[in-house]
Write a structure and sequence with these properties.
Layout: E1 5-9, H1 13-24, E2 28-32, H2 36-43, H3 54-63, E3 67-70, H4 73-79, E4 82-85, H5 100-116, E5 123-127, H6 135-149, E6 157-161, H7 171-176, E7 181-185, H8 188-202, E8 220-223, H9 225-256, H10 260-268, H11 289-302, H12 308-332, E9 339-343, H13 358-368, E10 372-376, H14 381-387, E11 391-394, H15 397-401, E12 406-409, H16 414-417, H17 421-427, E13 433-436, H18 443-449, E14 452-454
Parallel strand pairs: 1-2, 1-4, 2-3, 4-5, 5-6, 7-8, 9-10, 9-12, 10-11, 12-13, 13-14
Antiparallel strand pairs: 6-7
The chain binds nicotinamide-adenine-dinucleotide (NAD) and uridine-5'-diphosphate-glucose.
Nicotinamide-adenine-dinucleotide is lined by residues 9-15, 32-35, 38, 73, 86-89, 101, 104-105, 129-130, 164, 166, 168, 287-288.
Length: 459
Amino acid sequence: MREFDVAVVGSGYVGLVTGACLAYIGHRVTCVDKNERRVADLQRGKMPIYEPGLEEMVARGRSAGQLRFTADLPGCAREAEVVFIAVDTPPGEDGSADLSNVAAVARSIGRALSEAGERERPLIVVNKSTVPVGSGDYVSMLVREGAEEAGNGSVDFRVVSNPEFLREGSAVYDSLFPDRIVLGAESREALDTMRELYEPIIEQSFPAEMDPRPKAAVPFVTTDLASAEMIKYAANAFLATKISFINEIANICELVGADVSSVAYGIGLDGRIGPRFLSAGIGWGGSCFPKDVSALRSIAREYDYEPLLLDAAVCVNERQRKQVISKLQRELHTLKGKRVALLGLTFKPNTDDLREAPSLEIARTLSSLGARVVGYDPVAAKEAARLQPELKAAFDPYEALRGAHAAVVVTEWEEVRSLDPARAASLMEEPRVLVDGRNALDPERCRRGGLLYRGFGRA
Ligand SMILES: NC(=O)c1ccc[n+]([C@@H]2O[C@H](COP(=O)([O-])OP(=O)(O)OC[C@H]3O[C@@H](n4cnc5c(N)ncnc54)[C@H](O)[C@@H]3O)[C@@H](O)[C@H]2O)c1
Ligand SMILES: O=c1ccn([C@@H]2O[C@H](COP(=O)(O)OP(=O)(O)O[C@H]3O[C@H](CO)[C@@H](O)[C@H](O)[C@H]3O)[C@@H](O)[C@H]2O)c(=O)[nH]1
């Protein structure tokens, strides 16, 4: 295997995990970020995010001398063979992706290339951020513009799209054991180089200590730039739609007296459907699905196309969150003066990410209706209370439940799944409602413990 000099720009969820994993498989990696405090923290081993297994991977990379951190993007771009762009592409006001961070990095790479003069091989600029179709060409244009600004526009580089499919909470595992690696480029040579860089992952030839089960080679999908960019949006839109689909079925199950968990199991056994992403409940949130579905809708509208199915997926998702409120109103009648405990606040378990977390919107609505809201989360209670001041932070689930008239399971952390219903009921006030927004608890056990259990799509 050839050892590459790699720069990864953006030390957030994707950048850090990518950098740490590339160092783990034997490359020399420099992670770059414009946030100097973040860089200083990383240089002394302090993680800016909560992601299981990441701290150990970073420590390992640093002590092997394979991983370092800097704020000096031009310096890195001059020395690297491959630069990954992994900066955030947040939603703009109209729902389209805001590419200003990607653009700033591309220009800066251009300037650095121009100042460095001739290179032995073209620099490969890999876009890992989720970006609209056409962004590969836009990045090329900006690199060239940056180079022209610095006095020499004839710089040698190739742009590659390499969408990222990791999930927060299992990001390290997903990066080392991906379902596929997708690469889009116009240059065969650039694709061959990327294959070489990823070879230990494609061949699964790195030490098997993380997961000793034998693995087949990872499919390596090569395509043009636009299709690679579209694969990312299509994958997220499909998964989000799949969840909205099961939520629609859950709502009908409630009306007809069926149980959505059994229905999901029954349909998921069909190989054409598959069992994953069929958990009904509050619906999807997070830093990706809402932003990417909205960016895809916005792309479609740019071309005067009405994305009816995507619009419906979003509507169903918005309605699911509102259902938490109607389920509470049905049991508590007025919410004024009632204490409601939210159990789990991050958008999913095993992450500290609160971007588009349903908990924040639910807390806001409940407090606008006069309820007192307290929220428990094992890692993000303090930050959630900062973002949503109506929410009082609790650091233990039972502390949150003390004196509560109702509780809502918003995020199925293990600490929430393993809740003791009898202990919860003993701390709560009448009518002791538990709205299980993730269908994570056993309804019978909850009822035996003295809770008024209400799930999604089941009795
Ligand atoms: N979070 C995920 O699970 C996930 C998964 C797949 C793809 N993605 C995509 O990957 C991209 C990154 O997402 P993320 O969640 O890692 O973002 P993030 O917000 O966690 O991190 C982004 C980092 O980039 C840095 N940055 C921004 N502009 C910069 C610049 N000009 N120069 C240097 N550093 C800069 C920020 O300081 C920050 O540390 C997004 O496009 C996202 O859609 C995210
Ligand atoms: O059956 C399910 C599965 C998930 N969710 C919710 O869907 C959201 C997203 O979950 P998940 O996909 O596990 O987390 P992310 O980390 O947001 O990962 C998604 O978004 C990433 C960013 O683009 C992609 O890289 C991943 O492949 C894609 O799964 C969360 O709010 C979950 O609670 C459900 O409601 N029901």
